[in-house]
């Protein structure tokens, strides 16, 4: 890792135990199962931090409670907490969250990504950029950025 | 005839058959190597300009059923986001992520010369559109403002004659698009702040001098109708405003005859929920048939709609 880490000594938290979903046998297997908080959390918890060998869950960047789901309106909102309030990695973390959910959820889902209120120095600017889909699309045509994102999304945990 | 552009780097030309159905007549590919963000026909319909994230704008000519790329306009540092022809067809404007607006002049022999690079926006410029009659250009931006550009006298010197920002009852977030009404005396803009705004554009701002003329001012705001970002807005020749938004819906608005205290008001004529399966990125009325509307979406489809009746 290059010199000058943004946050040299992040606090690392314990990972939550994986809950196994109950799969009731007698239900209609073709029935559409609503997507819940835990399912979204399972999609994003193992995303790797861009500069540390820890997951976003271990750094408490995302928690299950930071995820809101409205199935009826096909709407998901993820509120993440950067490890330090000047974290220049905030947009790349947000981009990773967006890409992971774009790849994992049915296309009808509207995803909003934002930093937790009061946890980042340039909160409004970061939120605006992460939710401008044109800029996100342009960013994802940049091979260097995509490589960075893919590295964070690579399944290195379990 | 309809042109569509896409993240798949192509432009497709669609034509209506006598039976009424639409067919893809041509695919313009291998010229842009990134997303084609915007396209525009020249006023005489002979040329098509396409703006791409690859930092270039291409000009295509329709020759004997085929489309040839006759010019490539280079100069923007990165993504070009919009392109627009002036009413006379002699000027072309482009804008992009490098915060600049470029004005190009068409020369004999398919040469395009850059006549001005306009700086002023502090962020990504999302769209440019010429006034339907005057050589006056409007740009809208991620910096939340609308800028009006005109030539200074006869000097060929383009400059910003008006900035419509939050202080002028303007938008509080990204302005995505704009459209003029058929007479050019009103303009509608749409934004990430979930509103549409109507502006008085009846003065030619290149002819007014001094602040007292108050060229181009806010008339009214349509709020409370949209739940997510409004990406596109277009004014039909019959005066119907269509909007396309990130909530998958298309809405139509008309001027309300019941004048409010403030003078002017608009009402929603129709809301088409689930017009598409995903975000509606563009809505565009047919210039020939004023009740025919085309819409394009993230779901990869283009839909053609007909407005059957405008109830009063």
UniProtKB/TrEMBL annotation, chain B:
One of its GO terms (cellular component) is cytosolic [4Fe-4S] assembly targeting complex. It comes from the Eukaryota. WD repeats lie at residues 1-15, 29-61, 73-114, 118-149, 168-209, 273-312. Keywords: Repeat, WD repeat. InterPro entries: CIAO1/Cia1, WD40/YVTN_repeat-like_dom_sf, WD40_PAC1, WD40_repeat_CS, WD40_repeat_dom_sf, WD40_rpt. GO terms for biological process: iron-sulfur cluster assembly. Belongs to the WD repeat CIA1 family. Essential component of the cytosolic iron-sulfur (Fe/S) protein assembly machinery. Required for the maturation of extramitochondrial Fe/S proteins. This is Probable cytosolic iron-sulfur protein assembly protein CIAO1 homolog. It comes from Asparagus officinalis (Garden asparagus).
